[in-house]
Amino acid sequence: MTSTVPPVVSGGYPVVGHLFEMLHDRQSLFKRGYAEHGDVFSMKLGPQWVAVVTGAGYNRQFYTETDKSLNMQDGYGFLKEAIGEVLFVASKEDYYNQRPALLQVFKHERMADYVQAMNIEVQRWLDSLGQAGEVDITQAMLRLTQSVAGRAFIGPNYEQELGEAFWHHYKAISASLDPVLPPTLPLPKFKRRDAAKKKIHEKLMTLIQKRRDHPEQYDDLITTLLSTPLSDGSIMTDETIVTMFMGLIFAGHETTAGQAAWLIALLLQHPDYLDRVKAEIREHIPAGQPIDGGVLRNLTDIYYAIDETTRLRPSADTQIRTVEAAMTVGTYAIPAGWRMMVSGDTSHLLRDTFVNPEQFDPLRFSPERGEGKNPFAIVGFGGGIHKCSGMNFAKNEMAVITSLFFQQFDVELLSDDIHVVSGSGANYPSAVWVRYNRR
Ligand code: HEM
Question: Mean of the pLDDT values across residues 79-107?
Answer without folding.
Answer: 91
